[in-house]
Amino acid sequence: MNHFLKKTALAIMMCPLCFSYGYAQNIINHWEATGNPVVTHKYTCDPAALEYNDTLFIFTGEDAEGGLDFYNIKNWCCFATTDMTNFVEYALPLYAKDFEWNKGEFAYAGHVIERNGKFYWYVSTNTSGIGVAVADRPQGPYKDALGKPLLTNENSPGKRHSWRTIDPAAFIDDDGQAWLFWGNGACWAVKLNDDMTSYNTDYGVKTISIEGDMEFPFTEAPWVHKKDGVYFLSFAIGFPERIAFAVSDKINGPYTYKGIINEIAGNSNTNHQSIIEFKGNWYFIYHNGGMQTKGGSYSRSMCIDKLEFDENGMYKPIIMTTKGVDKID
Q1: How many structural domains compose the chain?
Q2: Which end of the chain is least crowded, N or C, by CB within 10 Å?
Q3: Judging by DSSP bridges, how do beta strands 206-207 and 242-248 pair with one another?
Q4: Does 200 fall in a domain?
Q5: What is the C-alpha separation between 265 and 287, in angstroms, rounded?
Q6: Cα–Cα distance between 128 and 2 in angstroms, integer?
Q7: What pLDDT shows up at residue 23?
């Protein structure tokens, strides 16, 4: 065993997460984050977070290494932490080529959600549509659940560009109803059926209305969560992208626009967020192009900063830092 493998094996043995909840299987890396970016041994983009059994799992795409002028993302990654400092990486759980219908092997943004002991990974594939993969464990491996797209451009009405059916975001409401949001150029939503691999055709596809004067038009990257009875819809606007948000008392809207919470993420045209509460703290997980020296719009890096709320229960603007977030004791 070479020095690197010995060092990695020793770190895994000492990691407090590695043997919790049976998650040790398929771990290939362990490190202590020293700030932003959190992951520095590869390029990571489009983070989506899931809390499960007191563990925060973060799923990303893997950008190709720098010097590019296009998005070259052929697989997804899975990371986990229990204290926001010690992180592990699992063996690659899903590849774009695992979806045989995925033309061009594009591994665009996705979102993992758990239901009844199964984990469902909704992924976008540029022009081919949105697929869903399933696994028995959060770290996978995952496999295509349908052998075809769950949603295609035919399910994204009112726009004509070919990459509009991207950026899925799943949410299970208090009543048990699961929803899936997505979109580029507009935001659409469906009610997922209990099997999580089909949707309610009687309800159909709804275009989510966002009311109010927006500084820039809706671009992409919807993300939904609920706090104190209020539904929060965050999303990217303009290009280069900022992250804005809107609120509603109904999950399918209409939503009222509240403003920008995250400005352009340094050295990156895109800005893709995940918002989650974990062990009493709220986090804003995103990507920038800040990993020196080859980071940029097409070689991005996952970052984590604090999310806070004002006296009205609305988001405070995100302060992007190189320090990152504190360790949870």
Answers
A1: 1
A2: C
A3: unpaired
A4: yes
A5: 7
A6: 42
A7: 61
The separation between the first and the last C-alpha atoms of the chain, rounded to the nearest angstrom, is 34
Using DSSP, state whether 208 is helix, strand or coil.
coil
Global pTM exceeds 0.70: yes
Q: What are phi and psi of 152, to 5 degrees?
A: -130, -175
Read off the pLDDT of residues 274-315 as tens digits, 9 standing for 90 and up. Answer: 999 999 999 999 999 998 778 999 999 999 999 999 999 999
The CATH number that applies at residue 132 is 2.115.10.20
Integer Cα distance of 55 and 316 in angstroms: 26
Q: Which of 46, 177, 204 is nearest to 121 (CA)?
A: 46
pLDDT computed for residue 18 by the predictor: 52
Q: Give residues with Cβ within 8 angstroms of 154, minimum separation 6.
A: none
- CB-based contact 171:194 (threshold 8 Å): no
Task: Kindly give, in sequence order, each residue whose CB lies less than 8 Å from that of residue 102, ignoring residues fewer than 6 positions away.
Answer: 96, 125, 128, 131
Residue 58 to residue 78: CA distance in whole angstroms = 6
Residues 122 and 203: their CA atoms lie apart, in Å, by 20
Q: What is the pLDDT of residue 124?
A: 96
pLDDT for res 4: 40
Would you state the pLDDT for residue 294? 85
Give a yes or no: residue 326 inside a domain: no
Q: Enumerate residue ranges in the chain where pLDDT < 50.
A: 1-14, 19, 21
Structural contact between residues 122 and 196, judged by C-beta atoms closer than 8 angstroms: no
Q: Per residue in 40-60, pLDDT tens? A: 999 999 999 999 999 999 999
Q: Is residue 319 part of a domain?
A: no
How many angstroms separate the CA atoms of 125 and 144, rounded?
A: 13
* Domain boundaries, position 83: 3-306
